[in-house]
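User: These chains co-purify. Model them together.
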Amino acid sequence: GAVVSQHPSWVICKSGTSVKIECRSLDFQATTMFWYRQFPKQSLMLMATSNEGSKATYEQGVEKDKFLINHASLTLSTLTVTSAHPEDSSFYICSAFLGQGGTEAFFGQGTRLTVV
Amino acid sequence: GQQLNQSPQSMFIQEGEDVSMNCTSSSIFNTWLWYKQDPGEGPVLLIALYKAGELTSNGRLTAQFGITRKDSFLNISASIPSDVGIYFCAGQFDNTDKLIFGTGTRLQVFP
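Assistant: Joint model of the two components:
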């Protein structure tokens, strides 16, 4: 079946540095990918919609200059957390649908970011 | 961001018992989905519902898409220890692919 892979699975970084998280669709092309953030014991909150070849669409309250999204190919979207702070520590998860309007979303395994 | 109301927030049950959880929304959705998330992992799709009133089963799991399109429930019959995890409902609006997640139900099963 379709697989979405995230890398890295976990990362620890110093406050003020930037961290890049990759999301790949392994056996299908995804024109659209989604980035979610999940704080401990909470639900997944959509951060942004990543569109291949165009600008990402950010949800209200998500700083686009802080969370840079690049979707340069049909199988790769990246999320860069710039100038990370401890409050950015969270579980970041990406997902992709099989085809436009597809309703079966496949999720990556998530990336645990800890900013110290 | 928007979230769906899911209840109960947590459940502690004995192995073999049946479980029921539900999800409500103030918005109408065209698709309802149910996911299970294990610790440190991404969500895994359990059941997808595409039509109001639809009742769908997947093994011991049964889910229904409410007639009003503003709610859904998930039942798990004869629970087993590996059912432990967090269950999320998710709604999808028409013509967009993004999912709105519920607040989650944490299930604990005791042998």
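The interface with chain A takes residues 1, 3, 31, 33, 35, 40-45, 48, 50, 88, 92, 95, 97-104, 106 of chain B (CB under 8 Å).
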